[in-house]
Design goal:
The protein contains 3 helices and 4 strands. By secondary structure, the chain is an alpha+beta fold. Bound molecules: zinc ion.
Length: about 120
C-alpha cells in the first residue's frame, strides 16, 4: 500500500508526512474508531502510512496499532460506515473530546504530499 493521508476535520487541511513541511501539519493525533467507539489513539509526527509516533527518539516508532490487525483497520476505514475507521487531527487543532464530535476523516487527495499552505516540494518521491 502506498502513502496516504487524511484531512483534519477542524481546519480542512491535510495531515502531511513530508519532512520539509511545517511541523504543525505533521504533528497529529490519530484515533481508530469502530462503531463510534475509540479503540486506540496515537500521537506524534505522521509517517505517511497510517501511523504517528515520536521520531525524535532513537530508532523508529513501532508502526503498529495494537487494537486490530492493520488490514481490519483499512477495511473499517474504507467501508460505508462513517463512525468506523480512522480519525486524524493536527495536534494544534485538537481539543479534548473532539474524537467524539467527529466521525472519521476524509481522504487527502494529495496523500500527504502537498503542503497545506500551497508550497510545492521538489523531492517528493
Ligand atoms: Zn487541523
Amino acid at each position: 500500500m502506498g502513502m496516504f493521508s487524511d484531512i483534519c476535520p477542524k481546519c480542512g487541511k491535510a495531515i502531511v508526512s513530508i519532512e520539509e513541511a511545517d511541523r504543525k501539519y505533521r504533528d497529529c493525533i490519530i484515533f481508530v474508531k469502530k462503531n463510534g467507539e475509540i479503540l486506540e489513539r496515537q500521537e506524534g509526527l505522521y509517517d505517511g502510512y497510517g501511523f504517528s509516533g515520536d521520531y525524535s527518539v532513537e530508532g523508529e516508532p513501532p508502526h503498529v496499532w495494537a487494537c486490530l490487525e492493520w488490514g481490519e483497520i483499512v477495511s473499517l476505514n474504507y467501508d460505508e460506515d462513517e463512525d468506523s475507521g480512522m480519525l486524524y487531527f493536527h495536534k494544534e487543532c485538537y481539543c479534548i473530546g473532539d474524537e467524539h464530535r467527529y466521525n472519521t476523516s476524509e481522504d487527502d487527495p494529495n496523500q500527504g504530499w502537498q503542503d497545506p499552505d500551497g508550497e510545492e516540494y521538489d523531492d517528493q518521491y
